[in-house]
Amino acid sequence: QVQLVESGGGLVQAGGSLRLSCAASGFTFSSYAMRWYRQAPGKEREWVAFISLLGSGTSYADSVKGRFTISRDNAKNTVYLQMNSLKPEDTAVYYCNAVGIGGWGQGTQVTVSS
Fold first, then answer.
1. Is 85 helix (H, G, I), strand (E, B) or coil?
2. Would you state the pLDDT for residue 60?
């Protein structure tokens, strides 16, 4: 059974930083690329970042490029999202997802105050 548990969210002032974690279980983590998504109130879920199986390839939405960094630790079955220079428009619930596998965790709330 696929399980994804996001954590690390919170309330931060604009310009601040947070590091999100997503602990995965129920599948062979190192065999799947991973993505982070986010969903702001009243908006559709949007893709934020992607990382390849071994972490050598990454890509980002234009809105976060240069501020967010995705990484993974296959020994810990965990993917991370380092978020710097946060803006109020980054406020959302953040989710991780394994590419090609259905299912979502509960997400972690990020709130950026101005």
1. coil
2. 98
